[in-house]
Amino acid sequence: MSAALLMKAMAVMAASMAAANPPEGSWSAAAGQFALGPVPAQVDLRSMLCEHLVRRSCEALDRAAERRTAAIHGGTWQAWRDDVRNRVRDDLGEIRFGPGGPELNVRAVSRHEQPHYVVENVLFESLPGWDVNASVYLPVAEAFPPPWPAVVIPVGHSAKTRESYQVPAQVFARLGYVAVTFDPPGMGGEKQAGNDHFRDGVRCYLTGHSSNRYFIADAVRCIDYLATRDDVTLARGVGITGVSGGGYTAMFAALIDDRIRCVGPACCAVPNALHPVIDVYAPCVETIAAGRFEYYDDVDVLAAAAPTPMLLMAGAQDEVFKIEWGHDIASKVRAGYAAAGTADAFAFFVDPGGHAYTVAMALEFAKWLDRFVRGTPDREMPDLRPGDFELLDPALLACGPRQEANMFTVNRALAEQLRANRSGLPIPDAVRQLVHAERVSSPAATAGPLSLAWFHHVQEILLSPEPGIALPATCLVPAKEDWRGGAVLYFDDGGRWDALRTHGMLARMAGFIQEGADGPAVLTVDLRGWGDSAPADLPYDLAGWGGRDRWIAYVSAGLGDPVLAMRIRDGLAALVYLRARPGIDPARIVVGGNGMGGVVALHVAAADGGAAGVFSLNGLATFESLAAHPDYTWPQEAFLPGVLRHYDLPELVASLSMPVLLANPLDARGAPLEPDAATAVYQSALESHAGCAVVPGESASAAEAFVKRLLGG
What we know:
Blueprint: H1 3-19, H2 27-30, H3 45-74, H4 77-92, E1 107-113, E2 118-127, E3 130-138, E4 150-154, H5 163-174, E5 178-182, H6 204-207, H7 212-227, E6 238-243, H8 245-256, E7 260-266, H9 273-278, H10 298-303, E8 310-315, H11 323-339, E9 346-351, H12 359-374, H13 407-419, H14 427-434, E10 444-447, E11 451-453, E12 456-464, E13 471-478, E14 485-492, H15 505-510, E15 521-525, H16 548-559, H17 563-580, E16 584-594, H18 596-608, E17 613-617, H19 624-628, H20 649-655, E18 660-663, H21 675-681, H22 683-688, E19 692-695, H23 700-711
Parallel strand pairs: 4-5, 4-6, 6-7, 7-8, 8-9, 14-15, 14-16, 16-17, 17-18, 18-19
Antiparallel strand pairs: 1-2, 2-3, 3-5, 10-12, 11-12, 12-13, 13-15
Helix pairs in contact: 3-4, 3-11, 3-16, 5-12, 7-8, 14-18, 17-18, 18-20
């Protein structure tokens, strides 16, 4: 800057300070006039997003409870139950089992004879190429001549070699039942590769189903396997029981397979409002199907099992699923069974222990099996105690399942299939439907003072697109009387000032410190949870699997309003505000963003349709890459539920009617795409959209040139 220009700018600033007319006296009195910085919010920005999700999730769960209560008292129980079951089936996605299931391809692995039972280890397929590593506990034939009734024991977040699975299986075998245990995907068992239920489970959101599908499929395919054995009878159905995650599998399986005639979930059900919502606990993604809070809580899943006989079990000292929760849930499920006319088909059993499946639980459930599956309700149970059982060496239960097919590979194949089988809904309509943006109104706005910085006014603003949500924003406008011109609306997942400070990209776009600069104006906004509103860490974030992005991603998905959808609506609201701002030419607004802010910008442009242009810097190249790459570095908030049923980002770009710049698109690992790869990914958009440009490498300069071409400056 020249000396003359600097002196002129300082004179302008001095005049502005003089106009403020500070009070006479000490400098400390003048300090009271300080008014720069963000506009104070009426909410604590650090807890705003979490509080918003908690409130709305609890409201949705209240509505679900009201529907259940109305069904109990209004005589519409059957219709309500069918609705819950249908919703669960939709959330799980296709599970083929029974006569219409794929080939099991059973392979025997080993057999071990013990004094009171026999263990046979077998492999069979749940999905094509996906092995179930089953350990089958058989009664001693001399004591219990076959064919035998059977019980399935899904394993929770553990392994089938642990006490809570070996011991009950031994109890049931000693009482004349075939008991089948198997490892779930991931966890502590044999099925590890591609089955991380945190990192691989969330990928299933993209293809529009819950990763719970894979846990449930294994359980019901165990029943298919039992049906192939000559020494097993399914004449009266089967039982299913498990603890923790295994109990969770059991209660969902009972809703989709009517061969299950007796269910015994233990230490697993919880009021979702208390856990994981109010306690802000990052849950296992398979427990949170997209949109489930509006339709069913855990108690609804249990109650919708009626009339299937159920023994709900809990541990008095359970440190995870509190016993007071158990009593509350049991009373509500009991009311549901009564409404179904099967009050005697439900009971609640409390074991004095903690979070475990005990011998006492197994004996109590065996009574229910005798009554509803074996048909011998009056049989006296033997006096079995924990000391009567020894755990087998884990090596004796090993099956060596194949690892090639897993949650990751199956979901990747679904993503590939969806590429050729989209919904057919026009992309702007699909975007508005996915993000609930059919109608976005102007946000309430609180503006701070105009602060003159050389030749521009800088203004801090607080936008409120809905109650309880405040979006800090910063606006940079030429300080010219009666100025009118175009503008850049910008979103950055790193914060609104990242591209402003130290003469950053946005400052350069606006011509900051340039005398006579004619714009464009800039409005950069912290969308909820970004920048100044980044959520504070909370107690459960101390856990190795904890994290704000996981809780926010899963709970907002469970709410049916993913946080990415909320941010897109925030962006649309900011666009409505900017169009109405004095001096802004509403026809000359370019929308842009960095990182996930670029993904938001593309969606805002698609849903709105009226921007003069849109650019994405360092943004995710494709949603499918998150399903296709073994590893990824993007936050779990990036996994927009159901998106691949409708479109991927290259198709969204191809649908846009305004100029588009994609600068330095990134792969799933956050690495820049090579030029040829970037061109290949966006080939259809480049061919169908003359105004589309893909520029690998340095992104800021490309964006500056793009904005200058569209808006001048």
